[in-house]
Amino acid sequence: MWKRPEAWAVTLFMGLQSVNYYVCVTWLPTIEVSFGVPADRTGWHLAVFQLVGIVMGLLIPVLLKGDSQVAAVVVASVPLAIGALGLAFAPRLDLLWIIVTSIGSGCSLVVALSLIGLKTSTTEEPTQLSGMAQCVGYLLAAVGPMLAGTIYDITSGWRTVLIMLAVLAVAQTAIGIIIGRNMEVGR
């Protein structure tokens, strides 16, 4: 499994979506406060982020049917980039960008976990791919919030962090489109 490029694509998709989610959950309230949003409102925004993500996670499986998951990947990944860039360059529309980001975040987790089963063909492969994707993916995710904080410390601002999240979301989209096509890890 560890030598298959398709398995690495699924793993990177899992890792990138996890980085984005954990950076958002860790830093969104702080980012908003730095843009002048009252602290009590940022708590509500984080609740909205989670709620919208849950709802979208329940809806995205409709796009996972069939041989190609490209549409689901795009719906899951592109809003992450749009939301991060929106918050970076138009922070007064903070709630809008948080909702847009949460659409992508909620969908991305479901897509990442679904790809593990959808892109394998034998009974052993899902277990192997799941172990690989989640192990590496969550290791990447563990670094994300610390890296974001370090970037903030170096730059004294959150815009660079938000741009980084957008770049990671674009990479997630590209990787997801590759693996979302009609291909399997075992072939």
Descriptive overview:
By secondary structure, the chain is mostly helical. It contains six helices and no strands. The protein has one domain: MFS general substrate transporter like domains (Growth Hormone, Chain: A), CATH 1.20.1250.20. It is 80% helix and 0% strand.
Would you kindly provide a brief summary of this structure?
The protein has a single domain (5-180), classed as MFS general substrate transporter like domains (Growth Hormone, Chain: A). It has six helices and no strands.
Q: What is the topological layout?
A:
Elements: H1 5-34, H2 39-59, H3 70-89, H4 94-118, H5 125-155, H6 159-180
Helix pairs in contact: 1-2, 1-4, 1-5, 1-6, 2-4, 3-4, 3-6
